[in-house]
Design a protein that fits this description.
CATH architecture of the largest domain: 2-Layer Sandwich
Order of helices and strands: HHHEEHEHEEHEEEEHHHEEEEE
Shape: elongated
Structural class: alpha+beta
Distance between the termini: 50 Å
Helix content: 25-40%
Number of domains: 3
Strand order of the largest sheet: 3-4-5-9-8-7-6
Radius of gyration: 21 Å
Number of strands: 14
Number of helices: 9
Largest sheet: 7 strands, mixed
Length: 331
């Protein structure tokens, strides 16, 4: 799916500090003046404040928090991550949509985004609230050429990407990662990541990384209100969702490129550990062989959580549920 004409026009007027003439848009995009005028009218109807001045052209003055395929694509600067956007006003699950589109041949780096998600899920089948106009629900499709045993580290790359964007845009917030797939602000959850893979023993058909972010919610259901928060609640102002999405794709593309060369997270250990809320704290590991506790020391080059045991030994946790004392009700 090539970038739409609406997205192209929006990109042109957004990137200019002055008016952009209709004729200039016609020549650059190969469309008629009537087509340009119709798109401008559509954008104005959607809430974009576009000034139209005779003999000067069009200038974008302001815009509300609009989440659409055109809005996201008009701001995307990546080479491949999120370059193709499949937008849904409402869907049951962006992960399920991405998996279906993967079977239909959707390209590596394609991104499914929904304004509202009705059947989102987290780890162990838990639900994830994604109300319309308030959250980010998106799933990135990857077609890696490396072996399936490396795929779990992609969750860590996405978690760091989310944390870096929030930290960069809103330095007033204390951002942390709870290994391996939660991003927290002020020790309350704002983002969950769910990575799913379709693979054979030695070959990956595709990987889908689902990301759910609480952005502009002002309240939560009783089931999660004690452990969850939103960026707006922490920052005090409305948050631009498209800016968050575009930023995450920028970071993920950069980190993925480095990861693909080494196929480990050695280049990111210091960054990840810098955000890791588990680090230096007592954790409880729910292992199939038996629950145990220890103190988390960080991650290794494989992305495993290093846990120092009471007897002085060390456990490398590759998967499973890890609770941190003082977080999410674990006391």
């Amino acid at each position: 799916m090539a970038i739409s004409t609406k997205a192209e026009i929006l990109k042109e007027i957004r990137s200019s500090s002055d008016h952009v003439s209709g004729q200039e848009l016609c020549e650059k995009l190969g469309i008629s003046r009537t087509a340009v005028w119709k798109v401008i009218k559509q954008l104005q109807a959607e809430g974009y404040d576009i000034e139209a001045v005779t003999n000067k052209g069009y200038r974008l003055l302001s815009y509300p928090d609009i989440l659409s395929g055109s809005e996201i694509m008009s701001r995307m600067q990546t080479q491949w991550a999120g370059k193709k956007v499949y937008f849904r006003k409402e869907t049951e699950s962006t992960n399920e949509d991405a998996k279906y589109l993967a079977e239909e041949g959707m390209d590596h780096g394609s991104l499914v985004v929904a304004d509202a998600q009705t059947g989102g899920k987290g780890r162990r089948g838990r639900g994830w609230e994604s109300p319309a106009g308030q959250s980010i629900s998106m799933s990135l499709l990857l077609r890696p050429t490396f072996s399936p045993d490396k795929a779990s580290m992609l969750t860590l790359l996405m978690a760091v990407s989310v944390a870096e964007v929030i930290n960069g845009l809103y330095p007033d917030m204390k951002v942390n990662i709870k290994w391996p797939n939660d991003v927290l602000v002020e020790e309350r959850k704002v983002c969950g990541i769910l990575t799913e893979m379709d693979a054979e023993p030695d070959f990956i058909h595709h990987v889908v990384i689902g990301v759910g972010i609480n952005v502009n919610q002002m309240s939560f259901s009783p089931e999660v209100e004690k452990i969850a928060t939103s960026l707006r609640l922490m920052h005090g102002e409305m948050i631009d969702r498209a800016q968050i999405i575009v930023g995450i794709m920028d970071y993920f593309e950069y980190y993925y490129g480095i990861f693909a060369e080494r196929l480990d997270v050695s280049d990111f250990v210091h960054i990840y550990d810098g955000y890791l809320i588990n680090r230096g704290r007592e954790v409880r590991v729910l292992d199939p062989k038996g629950e145990y506790t220890g103190v988390a020391e960080g991650i290794n080059d494989k992305g495993e959580l290093i846990v120092r045991l009471p007897d002085g030994g060390t456990s490398m946790v590759a998967s499973g549920e890890v609770s941190v004392r003082g977080i999410y009700g674990y006391v």
